[in-house]
Amino acid sequence: MKRTATRQIGLSGSFFLDDLDGCMDEAKYKAGSYRARAFSLLEIVIVLAIIAIVSAIAVPRFASASARYRANSAALRIVADMKLARARAYSTSASVEVWFDAIDHTVSIPTMTSFDDSNAIYVTALGAEPYHAELVDANFAGNAKVIFDIYGQPNADGMVVLKVGQARVTIVVDKATGEIAIR
């Protein structure tokens, strides 16, 4: 079926398009049977209320997930630092110490130089970006340091506890196996 549109002049002299569906004519327009398509204030308020409820549920979950992610990232960094010290001890046939400072929230390897500055010692600042982690405790037979011997074995069993927000992560070092694991 061929659709045609004709132009009609209304009573006021304005033009209306009239197609086969009769979608618009001046009489229906003046009678008010045509409505502008828009959202009412009530509909907008309901949508905003739904958005507010969903946001109230999602924001705390996002913060919790972000804290867990930062805690796990900091734990992975400490494990990498300890494995670096272990490899360094084994390759140089010299013992290497890893120090944990719960006040400054840092991990340092005094016998290694920083990768960024050859005049500084190797330090990982856990309290700074991107981790924002708190070093709660580090205990290796009563010391806040672990020493890897010339074979890359730790001198004691021990653990390091990190906290970011409500997320806590524990890193465990096993003297017998030399394993460093996140729990």
Give a written overview of the molecule.
The protein has 183 residues and is an alpha+beta fold. The protein has one domain: 3-Layer(bab) Sandwich (minor pseudopilin epsh fold), CATH 3.55.40. The protein is built from two helices and ten strands; from the N terminus they run ββααββββββββ. A four-stranded antiparallel sheet has the order 5-4-3-7, covered by helices on one side. It is rod-shaped. The termini are far apart. Mean pLDDT is 87; it is low at 14-21.
Layout of secondary structure:
Elements: E1 5-9, E2 15-19, H1 26-31, H2 41-92, E3 96-101, E4 106-113, E5 121-125, E6 134-140, E7 145-148, E8 158-164, E9 167-173, E10 180-182
Antiparallel strand pairs: 1-2, 3-4, 3-7, 4-5, 6-8, 8-9, 9-10
Features:
four-stranded antiparallel sheet; alpha+beta; minor pseudopilin epsh fold; 183 residues
CATH architecture: 3-Layer(bab) Sandwich
Question: Main β-sheet, in a few words?
Answer: 4 strands, antiparallel
CATH superfamily placement: minor pseudopilin epsh domain
Domain count: the total is 1
Succession of helices and strands: EEHHEEEEEEEE
How far apart are the termini?
73 Å
What does the radius of gyration come to? 35 Å
Strand content: 25-35%
**Global structural class:** alpha+beta
Helix coverage percent? 25-40%
What is the CATH third-level topology name?
minor pseudopilin epsh fold
- Number of DSSP E strands: 10
